[in-house]
Amino acid sequence: MWRRAVIRGMVAGAAGAAAMTAVEKLEQAWSGRPDSHVPGLTLGRLAGLPEQWAQRSQAGNLAMHAGQGVLLGALRGVMAASGLRGPWASGMFFAVRLTNDQVLENATGVGAPPWTWPREELALDLAHKAVYAFVTGAVADRLVARLGLGPGRVHAAARPGRRSDAGPPPRGAGLRPG
How far, rounded to the nearest angstrom, does the alpha carbon of residue 16 sit from its chain's CA centroid? Predict the structure, then answer.
């Protein structure tokens, strides 16, 4: 079940990355903002490629953009399989997406902490990453739901409502191949 959840999450991540890219392109057409080279520069530094390649590489930008989307989607698939589904889970995943970008960009020296950015740039980045997180979440939740309830959902259903006295279900509950 977990392997199928990872694969379905990666499909969801690809859908989220495509949606984020489409929204970015619409926003750029409206605002006139140029493409960012930060993803390509980050990939270039991580891979040890020459700066000149990374600064001009549309392929590098696309590879980093899509690659991160697909790989992080695997985590969202596992979240959904565990029973973490819906808008709350997508909000949690939004923080993961932002953290992933910031760790890679800041560790390579390509980026700076977001609280140092111009407000408009920060707002756009947050909006674009929210599109990714919530589209990825919606697709992952739908695809992974076919595998059955996750262990967390089984646990929550055992004693409905907000209760502190609900013990965990038996091991393996909710892990039904589908």
Answer: 7
Cα–Cα distances in Å, from 34 out to 29, 83, 91? Answer: 9, 40, 28
Structure-block tokens of residue 11: 């499909």
Exposure string of 110-136, with b = 16+ CB inside 10 Å and e = fewer, is: bbeeeeeeeeeeeebbeebbbbbbbbb
Residue recorded with tokens 């696309």: 62
Give this prediction's pTM: 0.87
Distance from C-alpha of 152 to C-alpha of 177, rounded to nearest angstrom? 16
Q: Are 83 and 174 in contact (CB under 8 A)?
A: yes
Each residue of 15-68: pLDDT tens digit? 999 999 999 999 999 999 998 889 999 999 999 988 887 667 788 889 998 999
Judged on CB neighbours under 10 Å (0-12, 13-18, 19+), 109 is exposed
Please tell me the distance from the alpha carbon of residue 84 to that of residue 82, in angstroms, as a whole number.
6
Sign for the pseudo-dihedral over CA of 129, 131, 134, 135: negative
